[in-house]
Amino acid sequence: MLWRAPLSLVHSAMPYEPNQTNDPSLKSWVESANDASSHFPIQNLPLCAFLHPDEEAVVLGARIGDKLVDMGLLAEAGILTDDHDGHAHHHEHSIFDDVALNHVLGHGPGLMAGMRKQLQEFLVDGPAGGQQARRLRQSALLDVAKCELLPPVAVMNYTDFYASIHHATTVGSMFRPDNPLLPNYKHVPIGYHGRASSIVESGTPIVRPRGQQSPPEGEPGAGPSFGPCKMLDYELEVGAFVGVGNELGKPISIREAHEHLAGLCLVNDWSARDIQKWEYQPLGPFLAKNFATTISPYVVTMDALAPFRCKAFSRGAGDPQPLAYLMDQRDQELGGFDITLEVWLSSAKMREQGAAAMRISRSNAFKDMYWTLAQMLAHHTSNGCNMQAGDLFASGTISGSEPGTRGCLLESTWQGWGPDGKAMPRKPITLPSGETRTFLADGDEVTIRGWCEREGYRTIGFGECVGRIEGAE
Length: 473
Ligand code: MN
Fold this sequence. Notes:
With 473 residues, the chain is an alpha+beta fold. It is built from 12 helices and 26 strands. It has helices at 31-34, 71-76, 102-106, 109-123, 131-139, 165-175, 273-279, 302-305, 329-334, 348-352, 373-381, 409-412, and strands spanning 47-51, 58-64, 67-70, 141-143, 148-150, 158-161, 191-193, 199-201, 206-207, 210-213, 225-228, 232-233, 236-242, 261-268, 271-272, 293-295, 300-301, 309-310, 336-337, 340-346, 358-363, 392-394, 429-430, 436-437, 445-452, 460-470. It binds manganese (II) ion.
């Protein structure tokens, strides 16, 4: 059983700012981590769960260079401990022997920071010391290529927000050309409860969903139909994992919200647009969204992300101020994250021809989300809703305002409304194989990549979030 009552949060100084663990001069004895092109230097150390190739057991780990560190083994050797918050914990077994990161994240920022320091002390460049230490360096590190990465967290609850104003405006205009943004948008972080059971790890095949679709337009008397989705789409999103949760009835304040965030991942919120269009009123997303959500394999910790924080999105002069429960000066100053995000597409034909995947979007639009992660979390709990360690909430589709920065096909192939009051035909993407796409075809593979770079710091990455479409059964 993974769930345990949330531990109280220990208020250590929580990282808005970088510290010595982000020092770009740190190097590791794991040579591949020192390569400037690696997204996994010693300054990153994202957390994961993987199948140990020799022991055939699930192990918690951290990525460095092209290796995974076996954290269970390091705990056994006394190198990783869980007493960083000043409390001695007496568990039946170490939290590092779990099969998912929920308890590690749920111990809070004190443990996360202490664990990061201990991992760095083990991995930092320098002589191993004795023979025992040399052996541990060998046995605790595994080639990532030989390990199967698993979902890092057992997600019990999943929420999806709608925080990109560019996305909300473009999509809104498809349904309401005269009134794209509903009056609540600039006051309330809009979201819905998604489904945790269909969250899958990167690489899991995505079966094209079947569903009910609206009657064809211009055919009075025709009824709805049921069949394979014809407008299958991806959604580029960033996900946040909750660390320490809150008790039912006790909201997390905006000032404390960032301390309840343990780390980020990439999310592809697969969407069936034809099913969505027919089913979404009046209660919102349902079967168009819950057939699969892919997450990247690593939890990139808030400590690793500290150098890449930035100002929250600057609202327009005419925009309303958020209500007080959503407003915190520090969050406005450092509540954004500058992450470069890319989406790549390859078709079955392209792979047959040996063609490389094609990049179909790139942006840093996550820093321009209308709401910060802290605002989303504060809002989510403002009614007393309880979050649990390992709960996931995603940002909503991340889109910029420019062509080439859109986070889904629904937007990137949209050409607006014609002078005759009818939607213009969608503009397809042309692939290197000569094929065209307005939505995803069977065999298409979507890869999301993300990384953070900033002058004076080592670049850190999220790894990949990959899914390939299989035909409906
Ligand atoms: Mn979404």
